[in-house]
Amino acid sequence: MGKQELNNFRFASKYPDLGDGPVPVAPYISADYFERERETVFRRHWLNLGRTDAIPNAGDYFVKDLAVLGVSVLVIRGDDGQVRAFHNVCQHRGNLLTYQEHGCRKALTCSFHGWVYDSRGQLVDVPDQAEFYRLDRDKLRLREFACDTWNGFVFIHPQETPPQDLRTYLGQLAANLQDYPFDQMELVGSWRATVNCNWKAFTDAFQEGYHVAMVHRRSIPDAFTGGETASCILDYARLDGLHRALSCPANPSRNPKPAEALAFKAAATLTQGAAGMDSLMPGLNPGGMASWGFDINVFFPNFFIDPANGWYFTYNFWPEAVNRTYWEVRMYMMKAPNAAVTVASEYSKVLLRDAVLEDLSTLEAGQRGMESGGIRELQFSDQEIACRHQYQVVDRLVRQG
Q1: Is 70 exceeded by the pLDDT of residue 275?
Q2: Contacts by 272-275 with C-beta closer than 8 Å and gap 24+?
Q3: Which H or E element spans position 6?
Q4: Mean local confidence (pLDDT), 23-51
Q5: CA atoms within 13 A on the CB side of 336
Q6: In what order do the strands lie in the sheet with 153-157?
Q7: Which helix (H) or strand (E) holds 253?
Q8: Half-sphere exposure of 26 (CA within 13 A, CB side)
Q9: What is the pLDDT at residue 9?
Q10: DSSP string of 44-63?
Q11: Cα–Cα nearest to 298, from 250, 353, 242, 248
């Protein structure tokens, strides 16, 4: 397509270097390509593991098993208040220090031979130490990951010396959300699933609005489509290096159902739409859309923050194989001061649960279709600019090696 023709498209005209042709299916189904992604994508970039409010007290910890890296990561708050991330591996003979997903321990004791580590990773006790040859406990600390936090989110970097600090890596997307009140919200719901789908195809389903009118016609049939926004057409997209941001429109002519209207009287709800544009929280609607619903912020490679006025949710996509991905969803809302707000939170939580179940309904069939040989190329529209951007970013990294 010529340059003049591209000017007819809002996003292709802004980002012509992404191209406008189809992209090959092979990167979504090739086991060899996936193995190269392990090294060039997941071993070389900052990865979000959760939030600090999950470990508020000294000794609180959670564990993340990352199949894509072949590691188990233990994130713990030390007795000095600092959040650290360690390999969940005893330095004696490699046993896991804890098999629990979360908990609180003043000391980490290996269940195999009883070696004990403190909350800062230092080896503090070895049963029958006199039986060992020249054992130096000071040199047997738990192996530590580079770990940092931003706005309460915990990140690790698999490399001992990351090429960029976390704040630089997160770029303008983080700068835009710096003052968003994450710390004033609480976890109201979480879900997880293992889906037989490539991680990129999985991610693509959540960074475009083209599917909304069809896939969500039962759960949220007119919240983000209908009226002036019949097809959930995105008016705003910004690419920021590896990362990207989008904004989803709301349907200003929508009439909420009675239960939803009652919930919204108490607090912001998932489908508040245009009503949520009064007194927007910092960082929202960066494109100044007239009918705005919520934003999508994709922090490369696999972390989403989707904020609105009074709530946000996050996605983490963890590859396990070329066609299998472990997915985590968490929803946060303003802390509930009374029962009415709690009811509003429950309403939104259930609605989001139903919507993401609808999203899951297409993924495994799509993966089978790509693997069948019945399709060789994917056709991305201008509305799927984020999908095209992700493909280009990953493919560049894989080719660079």
Answers
A1: no
A2: 272/308, 272/309, 272/310, 273/223, 273/224, 274/250
A3: helix 3-6
A4: 98
A5: 16
A6: 47-51, 153-157, 146-150
A7: none
A8: 5
A9: 87
A10: SS-EEEEEGGGS-STTEEEE
A11: 242
Three-class secondary structure of residue 254 per DSSP: coil
Q: How far are the Cα atoms of 25, 72, 158, 319 from residue 66, in angstroms, in the given order?
A: 25, 6, 11, 8
Mean pLDDT of 255-268: 67
pLDDT at residue number 298: 98
Task: Please answer whether residues 157 and 47 qualify as being in contact, where contact means their C-beta atoms are separated by less than 8 angstroms.
Answer: yes
Q: What are the pLDDT digits (tens) for 336-381? A: 788 777 877 888 888 889 898 999 999 999 999 999 999 999 999 9
Q: Specify the residue for token string 């503090």.
A: 124
* Cα–Cα dist 250/268, whole Å: 14
31-35, 155-159, 233-237, 264-268: range with lowest mean pLDDT = 264-268
Write the CB contacts of 179 (distance below 8 Å, at least 6 apart in sequence).
282, 283
Q: 184 by DSSP, 3-state: which? A: helix
User: What is 201-234 written as a DSSP string?
Assistant: HHHHTTS-STTHHHHTTTTSTTTSSBTTBTT---
Mean pLDDT of 155-180: 97
Q: Look-up: residue for tokens 């090429």?
A: 163
User: Looking at this protein, which amino acid is placed at residue 145?
Assistant: F
pLDDT > 90? residue 276? no
* Count of CB atoms situated within 10 Å of the CB of 122: 14
Rounded to the nearest 5°, which phi and psi values hold at 160? -60, -40
Q: Give the global pTM.
A: 0.94
β strands within 196-339, DSSP E: 236-240, 243-249, 292-299, 303-307, 311-321, 324-334
